[in-house]
Amino acid sequence: MLKTVAARGSITAAAQPLALSAGAVPQQLTALRQDVGVDLLRPDGRTVALTEAGRVLLAHAHRILAAMEEAECAVAAVKGTVGATATLAALPSTVARIVVPTLAALGADHPQLVMTCLVTDEAQLRELTLGTVDVVLGQRYHHLPETAPPRSVAISPLLDDPLLVVTAADGSGERPVALRELATHNLVVPPASTDCGQAILHACHQAGFTPTGRYVTADISAQLALARAGLATALVPRTAIDPGAPGIRTAPIEDHPILRLLFAATRRTESANPTTAAIVEALLTAVRQDRTAHLRPSP
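Given the sequence above, the corresponding structure tokens read:
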């Protein structure tokens, strides 16, 4: 609880990921304070902050919790069996073509494993380090500076997922498009505050223009709807598009491709965790199968 409160900045914000009521957390922290004999938290405006004693205890808590997980993984590795529960955090744009096949495969291969899926764009790696999720299906755009993950996190690359140019269907084929051609288009783009928005902005600058987003939304279903109606041109990750979706035309970018790396992240342990290993393998299989289906000629 102390670790989660310190990361989230408030007791109320820590209650939900701990699956506790807002009243239960302060009760437990009060008991911890009584055990330690010194204040661990102090008010800090509308939030709380660690005291010096709290920071010392938290440093030890990180090591204690890591040792506990290492012990659990070591025993699980000896047993060689997949556990009973696990939580996957995934991006909304990966659900249909990667997450759903992954969950279906895990249900068939490991019926004893109860999976929980958290679909979110927000701070997935933080949830991983806090222990509220076990595997993250995340992304990193190649156009953006690479930020090294925490040393406690292991990254398994899944695939490079290109953004495609999406317009209303007009009967033409998937002719590659030069990014500079979009300088005169009405674009629908994600907010510049998002990774995808920043990657598009950077690529367009490389192509010699600044995109003017007539429509701004991170909602991919809204982007596709605007493109389908002929109101805008969208730039959407390939895995976020239903290959059979009617009313749209997709085309690759030929001169300044915009790629996102999809990856699976787990907590790094010396002993292999059979449960997280099974989830990562299922993700890799779903990616391979989706890629094969995408490359297979239509009948």
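The first strand starts at residue 41 and ends at 44. Try to locate this feature in the token string yourself.
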